[in-house]
Amino acid sequence: MAYFPMFINIENKKAYVIGGGRVALRKAEVLMKFGADVTVIAKEIKHRFDCRVIEDIYREEYIKDAFIVVAATDDRNVNKEISRYCRENGIYVNTADSRDESTFIFGANAVDDNIVISVSTSGEDPSLAKKIRDDIQVYYDRDKNRNKKK
């Protein structure tokens, strides 16, 4: 199934990333780049996050006011529980280890001012999406630089 490409304004919207590892860091950075009010919740924080951090286990009460939640723990059962809660409560959820339990997925994004290019393989091949994004970015940067010289 292909995902519908929807661009929405998440500026100042409550976003919670559950997990303290590399995947959580990457997802938190993307959400912050687009202006979300990000809070990371994890019992163990493995990286430096430039947002609010709660060092604790996941609890439903933490995400009751969420607009977007990312379940990126290393515990399959916890991710599944987060997804269930979000779907039952109308909260957008991305479950890092299960596309089927997600209501949205992250594309590979190239951002320059107001131009956003997002590439998705509907979660089938994220490395291919990143390669296509990088190819587009190189082409765009080259064309942008060529137009500046004129």
Shape field:
globular
Strand order of the largest sheet: 3-2-1-4-5
What do we call the CATH topology of the largest domain? Rossmann fold
* Intertermini distance: 44 Å
- The CATH architecture of the largest domain would be 3-Layer(aba) Sandwich
What is the subunit organization of this protein? single chain
Mind summarizing the main beta sheet? 5 strands, parallel
Helix and strand element order: EHEEEHEEEH
Question: Gyration radius, to the nearest Å?
Answer: 16 Å
What is the count of distinct domains?
2
The CATH superfamily of the largest domain bears the name: NAD(P)-binding Rossmann-like Domain
Counted by DSSP, the helix tally is: 3
Low-confidence stretches: none
How would you classify the helix and strand content by structural class?
alpha/beta
Annotation keywords:
Rossmann fold, five-stranded parallel beta sheet, alpha/beta, 33% helix, two-stranded antiparallel sheet, globular, 3 helices, 2 domains, 150 residues
Structure, explained:
The protein folds into two domains: 14-101, 3-Layer(aba) Sandwich (Rossmann fold), CATH 3.40.50.720; 108-149. 25% of the residues are buried. It starts with 13 loop residues before the first strand and ends with a helix. The radius of gyration is 16 Å and the shape is globular. With 150 residues, it is of the alpha/beta class. It has a five-stranded parallel sheet with strand order 3-2-1-4-5, sandwiched between helices. It has a two-stranded antiparallel ribbon with strand order 6-7. It has helices at residues 22-33, 76-88, 126-149, and strands at 14-18, 37-42, 52-55, 68-71, 92-95, 108-112, 115-119. The model has no long low-confidence stretch (mean pLDDT 91). The chain has three helices and seven strands; from the N terminus they run βαβββαβββα.
